[in-house]
Amino acid sequence: MSRAAAARDWSRPGLLSGAAGRWLKALPVLLFLTALMFVPVGQLLSLSFQAKDGSFSWVHYARLFTADVYVNVMLVTLKIAAWTTLATVLASYPVAYLVATRSRRAKSSVMFWVLLAFWTSFLVRTFGWLVLLGRQGMINQFLQALGLIDVPANLLYTLPSVIVGMSHAMIPLCILTMVSVMETIDPNSVKAGLTLGARPGSAFWRIYFPLSLPGVAAGGLLVFITSLGFFITPAFLGGRFETMITQVIIEQIQEMLNWSFAGALSMLLLAVALVIFYVYDRLLGLSSLAGGGTAPARGGAGLSGWPARLGLKICAGLGHATDALLFPSWRARAAGERPRSAYGPAVQWTIVVAVVLFLCLPAFIMVPVSFTGGGTIDWPPRGFDLKWYQALFESPLWAQAALRSLIVALGTATLAMLLGTPVAFLLARENMRGKTALLALILSPLIIPRMIIAVALFYAYAKLGLVGTYTGLILGHTVLAIPYVVITVMAVLKNYDPRYDQAAWNLGAPRLATLRRVTLPLIRTGLISAFLFALITSFDELTLALFVTGGLTTTLPKQMWDDALLSVTPTLAAASTLLLLLVTLLIGFVGWLEKRSAR
Amino acid sequence: MTKDKSMSAGAMPVQEKLVVEGLTKRYGDFTALHPTDLTVRAGEFMTLLGPSGSGKTTLLMMVAGLLQPDEGRLAIDGRNATYAPPWERGIGMVFQNYALFPHLSVFENIAFPLRMRRTGEAEIKAAVGRALDVVRLPHVADRLPRALSGGQQQRIALARCLVFEPSLILMDEPLGALDKKLRDQLQLEIKHLHRQIGTTILYVTHDQQEALTMSDRVCLMNGGRIEQLGAPQELYFRPRSHFAADFLGESNFIEATVARRSGEALELACAGQERLVRAQAGASEAAGAKVRLMIRPESLSVTLQAPATGNALSGTLLETLFVGGTTRQYIALDGLGTVFCLELTAPAGRQLKPGEKVFAGWAEERGVVLAADAGAQP
């Protein structure tokens, strides 16, 4: 034993073992989020109460609520978000159910496509819909070839096209959220139901479905809140009547330079989002959001009293209906006969394949279009030509944008890991007071619509001279990436047995050596996933880039956006194809890592 | 006796609740259950006992209808039910992790099978009340399963299964998740319930003590096959294989060669031992055949002098362990391996010392002759 150790006073607890150690893990990230999110957002919101001369005034709110146009935009936003949520949940449920209940192999093949869609840029997928739905697009061509229509139909710039585009963007997230809840449902529950006399329809509706409701609710909430802040999809796929509130905020900043009114609009959006969260929390509890267990707090889907009873009644009715429809022939068939090949799975697979095709088609449609010899993104592509790739690689604008995006993404991922990992350890390991509040603070960049954070940072950066700088972008993107890092690392640590650490300490390894030699190697794959998550969040980020970059400091998504606003050319298809390739490689890499670490 | 008489005699008193014929389950190249025959009589408590991977749960799942057999036939109450869906079988099943529906109250959990059978509301109320009384938990009807202890949850799972009065109940390691004391208590309760209700129970466990305590008959399984089927005493005292002897209770094995055979009696020679030992023939052991002799430790006794009657082998006492009510003594037999003997602890008397020359003796009928090639020496 070394002399230093012998001389140590062990009658007192160590400096870092108690509250001080906890603060050390939480403080950096709290300070970071305060400086880069809470203070700027607060500033922006306080602007909304200032008249031109700086004095306190309600003038902006008066304008907000007296002119019908803004209230209407908010109502349209809510309407689009509600339709999107409904469509997304309906499409996601069968896929999530299949992924959660089928064999590992079926699961991983479906999950690959879901993840591919999840990681593919919103912009790329939106452009895909332009190719599919345009007047000369694939669907119009197809319908004309079949002779169903004579002139091309107006599929774009309508409410349905916006909802299709937005649900397409949200389905992967919704599936992932639902799967995490469904995987905690005991498969014996349904088996027990069958042995107790429930036919498959009743077993599903009375047992599985109520148990999966927390996942449905969590997925629905995430979709709804995220949908409120959409602007890419309505901008490209929507018409004048599908203008959403974030588009109005952009307009106020970029064209009117009216910060105060943008602040008031942000306040309205934030208030709506918070009210929805509050209602959700009252009804169902927020714990189900963090991928917690399925067991609801109060029975039913967390509901109690008459809503729960009514819900179960409805489920019972649906069960009887399903049984009457799909399983009527059991009584007629002799029990000794081998049953005909079950058609339940076939129906299920058909739905799932349709959803997966829906998810992947818009991204993959860009591949053939990028090789067109023509000058437009019309379907079918004309001939085969590499000229659009050539244009892409020869343009300094595109090359520099790509390089800049890469540097920013690497910087963001590194910083987000440094800030997020310690606090994830704290949240996953320790049982302390204020844990829920801490988690809520760290996840708040997901709750506060991204547009508000972006506008607020733009305002702050303008004063600090950070607009158009690497530092500004990296700091801003880190705010957005931290929640993803924390959630991913927490999920990994949940499966990590802390007794490995205790064993290492007992064997003589101090804290740091334990971390380096035992903990980190064991959770390495999860950490790499978290890093990639942060990387892609930044690489794909447009909202913040929209304001704080431009001209010579533009990032790749911003470059695509600017280009697309002028006209959607095959150059964009070429860029999209390259992005798709990159994402496929990344998913393959993560899959390879997981397989390797499983061995 | 005429042919007619024997047939009617066979059909009347012993009713066959469950008949399994040649039932087989394969997963690719792996055979989870080789073609298996099994008959469970009405009112019987039968246990499928075996290590994990022995096929016992596979067999149970096929009886429940939760798994489809690849070959074979299965009849419940004389009706072919091989491919009947589980909800039509009317079989009760208790799962290892209880599988209580977490979103339904205890009352609704127990009412579930009745609702599936469209039972009237008043009748449901009465039946659930009775079921809760049977498991002695009448006060928990309104709680959620999560609010109950493990033992209480298992009782509710039992009640849910009893409430629709199935004539056959399957139990898949129902006590596996409970601690020892609770397990012992619930073993007794299930046994009493069985006697009280008179239902047929097919029970799966890997715990040999549980199987011996509870069952009318035990079906010992190994490697996807039935190893031996019989009453607990029969399996314990007359195991037919090394595996059966080793899996149930503790045992000593002694390698030997058949020296002489006269009718049912064998004389065996053991390497390094002067005396021959006598045993009853198992099946076809001829002179010169290698066999393995199994003796339960409680059948052995250790003495300083060779006993006047019965068998004895010489050896050296290695160690004496006092285990409370019983004492274990380890003896290195001359020329053979080590055996141990289990005796009730005698408070007084001369203590044998390690290193002393002793004899391990046993009554002739307590030795069981097994084939030498079945299984490895432990």
Description:
The complex is a heterodimer of chains A (599) and B (378). Chain A has helices spanning 3-7, 19-47, 59-66, 68-101, 104-119, 122-133, 138-145, 159-182, 187-195, 200-228, 232-237, 245-256, 259-284, 306-326, 344-364, 366-370, 387-394, 396-429, 435-447, 450-464, 470-494, 499-506, 511-522, 524-539, 543-548, 556-566, 570-598. Chain A is mainly alpha-helical and 599 residues long. Among the domains of chain A are: 47-188 and 215-302, MetI-like fold, CATH 1.10.3720; 397-568, MetI-like fold (Orthogonal Bundle). Chain A is globular, with a radius of gyration of 26 Å. Chain A starts with a helix and ends with a helix. The model of chain A is unreliable at 290-302 (pLDDT under 50). Chain B is α+β, with helices and mostly antiparallel strands and 378 residues long. In chain B, the strands form four sheets. Chain B has a six-stranded mixed beta sheet, sandwiched between helices. In chain B, strands 13-12-11-14-20 form a five-stranded antiparallel beta sheet, with no helix packed on it. In chain B, strands 15-19-16-17-18 form a five-stranded antiparallel beta sheet, with no helix packed on it. In chain B, β12 (265-269) and β13 (276-280) form a beta hairpin. The longest helix of chain B has 18 residues, at 180-197. Chain B starts with a helix and ends in a 7-residue tail after the last strand. The model of chain B is unreliable at 1-13 and 374-378 (pLDDT under 50). The chains are: A mainly alpha (599), B alpha+beta (378). At the A-B interface, α9 and α10 of A face β5, α3 and α4 of B.
